[in-house]
Amino acid sequence: MVSANVCNKCGNKIITGVRKYQGRYYCAHCYDQIMEEAQRFEDEKQKLVLFIKDLFVIQECPEIVLYAIEKALREGKKLSGIKGTLLYYYNIQGNAPDNISYIGTVIQREYANAAKYFEETKRIKAANEAIDINVPPVVVRIHPGDQKRKKMKYRMEDL
Ligand SMILES: [Zn+2]
User: Fold this and answer.
1) Distance CA 14, CA 11 (A)
2) Is residue 100 assigned to a domain?
């Protein structure tokens, strides 16, 4: 039920200044937040379009690309994920950006692979940073049990 008395976001009763957005009512505070979020989203989308134009060295983004982005968003994909997918497919995997009408297929096919790639990269980076920061080489501790096992496996001369 849509009521003009209750804010659709915070659920508070709206005393003054009812705002309407996409058929729903909001208090002034929540409305401003929603507008800011919408603006941020629009900015991010424009940046993605710019990125695609740079990638394919074109002046105008064809309809088919905008359609592919909207379709991906409707499916719950994220703008950052879409950009990551294109980075992954074209920049990291080195596929030539020669057919822009293929972009929708790339987003659909590579989105999960790209997510996996970036997750793995992040994991490795975090692991490396943890080693660099937290474990100075002089204080490496080995449990007696580990040492015993290691001694059985390796001799210094072999290393
Ligand atoms: Zn509110």
Assistant:
1) 9
2) yes
Q: Give the number of domains in the chain.
A: 2
pLDDT in tens, 75-85: 999 999 999 99
Q: How far is the CA of 146 from the centre of ligand 1 (A)?
A: 58
Task: Output the CA 5–ligand 1 centroid distance in Å.
Answer: 11
Is residue 68 domain-shared with residue 40, that is, in the same domain?
no
| Calpha distance 30→37 (Å, rounded) | 10
- What is the 6 CA–ligand 1 centroid distance (Å)? 8
1 CA distance to ligand 1 centroid (A)? 16
Residues 142-158 pLDDT 10s: 565 555 544 445 455 55
Task: Give 94's contacts (C-beta < 8 A, 6+ positions apart).
Answer: none
Tell me if 138 is assigned to some domain: no
Distance 29 CA to ligand 1 centre (A): 6
pTM: 0.71
